[in-house]
Amino acid sequence: MSFQMSVEVERKFLCNADILKTLEGSEATCVGQHQFKDQYFDSPNFDLTLKDVWLRKRKECWELKCPTAEETSGEQSKTAALCTRYKEITNLPEIQLRVKEVLKDVCEDTEKSSSLGNESWHSKMNLACFAEFTTVRRSFILEDGVRIDLDQADFGYHVGEIEVLVPEEGDVQSALEKIERTARKLGLTGDQRVEGKMSVYLKRNNPEQYAKLQSAHVL
User: Fold this and answer.
1) Which residue, 44, 65, 174, 183, has fewest beta-carbon neighbours within 10 Å?
2) What sign results for the dihedral spanned by CA atoms 39, 50, 177, 78?
């Protein structure tokens, strides 16, 4: 069975008081503030994250983020270079299937895990939590559907995200254009990607994994 997935197109930026002031004085609608805890899981050899596959548990729900096939022909636009694109999967059976596909060459027991309960399947695949942190998020929605999240992680990192969700076969170029317009409205400058919460967390708390992911050009 095939499950519908969305693609998360996202540009990160460093938050400051000017950006918050711009948002509060714009047509953006504040949709609230909430707090959540993320737990990220991988094998002892980092078999998932080395393939840029991110398994997490948020608010007691499993989520999986997988990279999409990006355009490699021609010169990549500046906007595209500043953004990330991930398929976002929230259906547990589909998550289990995708994880098993990644681990099939390194885990002999994946076939035994297909009938496991929701809380035990990851341990049977030898997946353990390697990162855990809490985020306070304030969110805004623009009229064109763009979402802006301002995140304050409990390890002292403050980062913003401009996000557009599109169907798996949807118009990514249109999403990139929306993100570029939003970035200009916020006065964002710079031509380098801003680090996400996970990059900063690993650099501070698990430098071995961070170094391996950098060598593999994941981070």
Assistant:
1) 44
2) positive
pLDDT digits (tens, 9 = 90+) for 108-158: 554 554 455 566 899 889 999 999 999 999 999 998 889 999 999 999 999
Q: Which one, of 58, 53, 57, 60, lies nearest residue 86 by Cα?
A: 53
State whether residue 12 is helix, strand or coil: strand
Q: Which own/partner contact pairs does 204-212 have at CB distance under 8 Å and 24+ positions apart?
A: 204/155, 205/131, 205/155, 206/130, 206/131, 209/46, 209/49, 209/130, 212/46, 212/50
- Taking Cα atoms as reference points, which of 207, 160, 164, 193 lies closest to residue 46? 207
User: What is the widest separation between alpha-carbon atoms in the chain?
Assistant: 56
pLDDT tens, position by position, 147-176: 999 999 999 999 999 999 998 777 889 999
